[in-house]
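Revision sheet: structure tokens.
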Amino acid sequence: MSYNSKKNISSIAAGILIIAAYAVYAFGERAPAPDDLKSWATAMLVFIGIGVAAVIVIQIIFHIVLAVGIAAKEQDCNGKEVERIISSSMVEDEREKLITLKSAHVGYICAGIGFIAALVALACGWSAVAALHILFGTSAVGSVAEGISRRVLF
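Predicted:
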């Protein structure tokens, strides 16, 4: 399995974990009142921050595990050789750039659909909190869908 595939799988896993954590919070007993717009917006901002931090930490751990795995596999190599192997596996060619663009398109479509759905929800008389949940949910699902489409296209 290539470096990009492994990195993509770790990003998908991080996205799914963040969505699951938010769902547990939103349906749990400690969730804000259904009409408390400020508290829900604050909670979503906190989960966005947690998501960014989690992705950074997971990517760092992924790179450490990758380096240790390559060093263990290439036992007779020195540090420079391991570094060369890692950097050569991280090179992105034109095909991978095109796949990244196509998968980003999937994420943008999900976010756009979410924006339209939130506007429709508001136009139908739903609460602003429901519109926030639609926006947040479709953005998170769009991020995971982007990763899945990248994985499928590889």
